[in-house]
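Title: Request for sanity check on XdhC family protein prediction

Description:
We are preparing a figure and want to confirm that the structure record we downloaded matches what your pipeline produces today. Could someone re-run it with the sequence below and paste the raw structure tokens into this thread? We only need the token string, no images.
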Amino acid sequence: MDLSALRELNADRRARRAAVLVTDLDDGSSRLLHENDTVGGELADAVRQVFRTGRSDSVEADGKKLFLNVHLPSPRLVVIGAVHISQALAPMAKVAGFPVEVIDPRTAFATAERFPDIALDAEWPQDVLARRPLDSYTALAAVTHDPKIDDFALKAALDAGCFYVGALGSRKTHAKRVERLLALGASADEIGRIHAPIGIDIGAASPAEIAVAVLAQIIRAFRTRGLEAKDAAA
């Protein structure tokens, strides 16, 4: 790898941008690609695959033998609400490899005793997210049921293109949420990305079961990034 590519790759890592270094195995030449770059031919599918899986691979594309060395930011989970579901979800997500942060301004809920070994912010989401912005490699789960806390974070997640956005509540509750988010400037298409009711449908009843359903939905969303756009274009 030449120094310019290395510098660019290090900048991508600091900025939490995904990149893949494409090296021609015959002549040793290489180039750096990002997720939104236009790639044609057989290479396009190969690059899309490694971005989605996070696994580097050797491929043959467009008559060339190539090595695709992919570098993905670590996916993280931001949970809005230090509630019972969060108490179950946070340790599960850590085991699955997602760094977790719980945000809740209600100091009676956001305590180290209830969330041992979990990054915890007993502040308003708008204050925390101003310091640590969301990005496309972040999943956000809003579970307070309180619009004063959830709505700003949901709008911020849509603006940032988070790979997963989920919100607790019934369909009736979500219909009111849609009206509020529209008033905040979110588009109908953006709001349509919100998983509400949150979690895959496994008939979950307890907080721990709901946490399992939410984590499964987050993992599925992460591992299928980009497939929706590809299917729509087919």
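Thanks, this matches our download. The longest strand covers residues 64-71.
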